[in-house]
């Protein structure tokens, strides 16, 4: 009974504490929404909630069982969510870095200057997509802010070249030796080509999505990356981020998305 009363021993800092925890949980949920990890997260959250309820109600047996589970739970959480934790830490680190934070550049340079600068990088990619859409050339382009050689170089051909429309078209040309797999772009460079990416195991995707789309979605689930997919079958352009995909997007929309994410 005493612990029930303690629950109501509430002050301003307790409210702030609850609000901050809710905010953190919301951010975490946003990071993993639409991925398999979301279901695990909901399951763990329910077990935590149950633990606090049975503890407050002084139900000893259940408290002990769930308490033991919670003691090893933190290790389980680190193992299960290692990709998400990694992504979260990269996100925090990147946002703390003034040099890489475009919002700061926009503040100092003015929004228009920064956007004009970014448009120079994006234009060749959009132009290449326009022509690949017309010729029904399948393509998968992944954008990463922090290129992690350990992840991408093992299965890829290193390119390390300036972004250009003709180079992108040449890579994805059907008979070319590098057309299979994904191109990785980071900063101002095409870093690598012909990369084998992890496939998503999301079972709610449209039936027409084959390996190219599944690889494009998969890479955004496991890494801080976005992916652009040109369908060989239909010429349609899709865009994946955080494991979710927008289908059949227009070039104006693609420009907006790349401007925001790349
Ligand atoms: N794990 C992978 N990582 C990167 N690319 C892959 C991977 N698996 C397959 N691909 C690419 O996808 C191509 C096969 O695409 P598939 O036809 O299965 O995809 P799709 O999603 O139906 O796309 P499309 O509409 O272009 O046919 C392969 O030729 C290869 O280039």
UniProtKB/TrEMBL annotation:
EC number of the protein: 2.7.7.85
Keyword set, alphabetical order: ATP-binding, Cell membrane, Membrane, Nucleotide-binding, Nucleotidyltransferase, Transferase, Transmembrane, Transmembrane helix
Transmembrane segments: 12-29, 35-54, 61-81
Gene3D superfamilies: DNA integrity scanning protein, DisA, N-terminal domain
Catalytic activity: 2 ATP = 3',3'-c-di-AMP + 2 diphosphate
InterPro entries listed in its UniProt record: C-di-AMP_synthase, CdaA, CdaA_N, DisA, DNA_integrity_DisA_N_sf, DNA_integrity_scan_DisA_N
One Pfam family it belongs to: CdaA_N
UniProt GO MF annotations: adenylate cyclase activity; ATP binding; diadenylate cyclase activity
Residue ranges annotated for the DAC domain, each copy included: 82-251
Record function comment: Catalyzes the condensation of 2 ATP molecules into cyclic di-AMP (c-di-AMP), a second messenger used to regulate differing processes in different bacteria.
Assigned protein family: Belongs to the adenylate cyclase family. DacA/CdaA subfamily.
Subunit structure as annotated in this protein's UniProt entry: Probably a homodimer.
Protein name: Diadenylate cyclase
Source organism phylogeny: Bacteria, Pseudomonadati, Bacteroidota, Sphingobacteriia, Sphingobacteriales
